Amino acid sequence: MFDWLSWIHWLSAFRYASNMLAMNEFRNLTFCLANDTRICPLTGLEVLHEKDMDFTTEWDLWKNYVGVQDRLGAIFMIVATQMFSTMTELETLIKERALFVHEHSSGYYRTSTFFLTKVLWDILLVRSLVSIIFSMIVYFMTGLDRNVNKFFIFLLTVFFSSLFGSTVCLFVAATASHYGVALILVILIYLVMMVFSGFIIALKSMFDWLSWIHWLSAFRYASNMLAMSEFRNLTFCLANDTHICPLTGLEVLHEKDMNFTTEWDLWKNDVGLLIMTVVFLILTHAQLLRIKKTN
User: Fold this and answer.
1) Which of 226, 189, 194, 206 has the alpha carbon at shortest distance from 90?
2) What number of helices (H) and strands (E) belong to the chain?
3) Can you tell me whether residue 236 is helix, strand or coil?
4) Pairing of strands 235-238, 247-248
5) What does pTM read for this prediction?
6) Domain limits, the chain
7) Which residues contact 174 (CB under 8 A, 6 or more apart)?
8) pLDDT for 7-38, tens place per residue?
9) Distances in Å between the alpha carbon of 99 and those of 109, 177, 199?
């Protein structure tokens, strides 16, 4: 038999936790504005980085070779921007951790209620809005291939990257009670993932006993997804309509150890990114339960 009383109690607790979260964000108006408007200067940096990038994909010897490298650099910079920008949430999450311990011990709501509220409203809602605005500005102003399917792949990957970064910060905030310690842990996690992304150091040049770490790099999944989506159907031809095309996008991907043969080679990157996000969410919930037992 369905327990209506428990359901009503859970809804009341969920509403209370949602109101509490909204009030905390409203009170910290400076953080809200900084978190939502950060896309403006970051977008400017992306545009400056790509101001000379030609999206017509015409091959003009050295100039367009640099253009190919600029595309790859822009992709990596976009992913890094989405990951590192989530660190602005750490200080607020640390403060909410103390509030959660106090209100949970007072019986206001369960751990699962607080966790679900945080994921739905503070992570999914905020991340989706910021990712949509960021993608609509950056994608077209950086001169990436103007294709509807590629744009939505870009939007989805940017959202997953931002979502992953938020879950990492949430997990670290649930683990460490001091802001300085939490900040160091997040930076360490991101730096290791950046090194093993394949963009900074070639994976072939690393020790064999360390090469397996690239499977745990969210930077690699996100960067590979965007690079494959951008280059898979491109052909770089000589200028002046000579119809001579000395370079293809697939050759660029092969040079960067991104072998694209089937659609699964593309989508497995977003799947891997999503799996890592779910794993960190599970670990976060486990850490919140641990806080409950020790307080």
Assistant:
1) 189
2) 12, 3
3) strand
4) antiparallel
5) 0.81
6) 4-294
7) 97, 284, 287, 288, 291
8) 565 566 666 666 666 666 555 545 555 555 55
9) 12, 12, 40
